[in-house]
Amino acid sequence: MSEPFHVLIIGGGIGGLTLAQGLKRNGISAAVYERDRTLTDRLQGYRVHISPTGGLALHECLPPHLFDVFDRTCGAPTSALRFFTEQMRLLLAFDGDFVAGTDPVARHRSASRITLRQVLLAELDNVHFAKTFQRYEEQRGRIVAYFDDGTRAEGDLLVAADGGGSRVRRQFLPDAQRVETGVIGIAGKIFLDTARERIARPLLDGISLVSARGGLGLFVAIQEVTGGPVGGIGGNEPALAGAGNLYDNTRSYLMWGLSAKREKFSLTDVELADSAALATAAARGMAGWSRAFRDLVDLADPTTISCLPIRTSVPVAPWRTGRVTLLGDAIHSMTPYRGIGANVAIKDAARLKRALVAARRGERALDDAIHDYETGMLDYGFRAVRNSLKAMHQTVTDSLPALMISRLTLRAINTLPPVKHIVARRLGEE
Ligand SMILES: Cc1cc2nc3c(=O)[nH]c(=O)nc-3n(C[C@H](O)[C@H](O)[C@H](O)COP(=O)(O)OP(=O)(O)OC[C@H]3O[C@@H](n4cnc5c(N)ncnc54)[C@H](O)[C@@H]3O)c2cc1C
Asked: pTM value?
């Protein structure tokens, strides 16, 4: 590894910023190029589940005091993960230590996306905003990145961390595909300070999942803000003031997401961007369900109701290791049905950091170290893609026999504590 070695990270999302923190902590020069000053993706207003795998990788990359801030600004620990029928009959429940865990680092956490981003940006002086990557060139063994504003940056390694629509991937792996699954999600946020008393109790202490007859799936999760900001982290983003309740980062809330094949909702293209039409479609989809679930639509803050098309990546063949590599959604974007995409991106960042540190120390040749990172990442990354797609199909299945078998399986697991332990442990292994 020639010195000075400089890493160009395209994209300042969860994976790119984790890598930047990890490289900084290990004295490796890097700069992040992020297209936005404020993230306008509406989903940035929601929570993100950080698993034990993600927690360990963040712990490895963040300086200890920032990991401590991350830990203290997470929502109250999830105390339950429950599977219900649409009539709210319990199928399977993981409670207490099954989900919360006792390890101070490797445990399940409910993080606010806004707060996590604040943590990951903290103390980084090498993040360049309003820099939209356009293309790269290899010049005499170095990489030059060009941006839409006409500027350029030069380095020794280019890391694509620019998310599912990655422009780096489109140039580097033009055949790699990201496709629509045909499923869409309608999501909303309910603020607990005004609605807590009107929400059914079992929905108030963790995550609830429903796979219903007719091919609809419901995800419900709570984000309980327990303390105030720590050292300026955990509050609202000044730049998002006035951007609406979706971006409120200080009030506890419950979020729900109802999904199905698009045709089940009978929504026109225009209606997909219309909160009122989405709420009506969600209510129609849940007709005949338990009142506890149907109430969620009425209780949601109408300004937070939005729609999300569900996409997935298609596995790619390995490439010849060079001066461009990828991490996170830029290479293996997945459906959100297992809630693991961010954790895999964070894991990628920690492993790539480790590879670069090993090369800098002379323990591995640079190409070998990056190649090892890529081989492992393609393996577990696309396994996560496959598992997340399978989980989506199971959740929104049209097949009554498949749904019944799945319910029987969940009920059986619920009655077998040793099996439950194994399944619970696997919830954090990505
Ligand atoms: C509804 C939903 C719920 C989810 N819940 C969970 C969960 O609970 N747990 C979990 O682990 N995962 C979850 N995920 C998945 C998770 O959000 C992603 O996998 C994760 O954000 C990927 O991180 P990333 O850094 O690879 O990409 P991103 O976080 O998308 O970051 C990419 C960054 O690159 C920037 N960028 C894009 N193009 C350019 C360009 N040309 N130039 C410069 N910058 C650019 C973007 O602005 C962005 O900041 C969920 C996803 C969805 C859709």
From this structure: 0.94
